[in-house]
Amino acid sequence: MDIRDDEFRKWSASWTHLNPDHRYELLTDHAAKSYVSESYRHRSDIVSTFERDRILHADFLRYLAILADGGVYADIDTECTRPVRTWIPSEFVQSVGCVIGIEYNASAGPLEDFKGNLSLCQWTFMARPWHPVMQQVVDSVTHMLQQQTSADQRITAGLGADIGELTGPAVRVARGSILFKTNP
């Protein structure tokens, strides 16, 4: 990705400008490791899985942060165009605990880079702390990453693995489908 610093500043400023009452935080690699160790000290499986492979940190961290603290996650190259408080109509604010957008729906026609009929947006989403959808996503990702662990305790996802199947939008479609079917 070839993006100049001024573009990152513009995108970051869009979030703080439209949402002045929110805390904006960027987790560095070092801060992320400390954050996960502290927030998930009761889940050694999550901490050890997170620490094993740096390639998958970004996707896994976004789910872990929103599960533990709630709030809004947005990739650093995402611009905020509306205040977060307007994302949910006022009559639903108390009853909605998780908002995940649809990135791709096959009913609009097939796209080459997408598998399946539906892909959920993972570059911006929001949830209340410990929301069941996010809990199932974290549990699912943890389990799938543990299944990819080799005898030397390194996660073996790499050139041959489809990262999107392990930590990307496909995971949330699968987990979300189960929740929607079991908790209408």
From TrEMBL:
An example Gene Ontology CC term for this record: mannan polymerase complex
Superkingdom per UniProt: Eukaryota
InterPro entries: GlycoTrfase_DXD_sugar-bd_CS (IPR007577), Nucleotide-diphossugar_trans (IPR029044), Och1-like (IPR039367)
Transmembrane parts of this sequence: none
BP term (GO), one: protein N-linked glycosylation
Gene Ontology terms, MF aspect: alpha-1,6-mannosyltransferase activity
Family the entry assigns: Belongs to the glycosyltransferase 32 family.
Protein name: Initiation-specific alpha-1,6-mannosyltransferase
Source organism (scientific name): Friedmanniomyces endolithicus
Native organism taxonomy: Eukaryota, Fungi, Dikarya, Ascomycota, Pezizomycotina
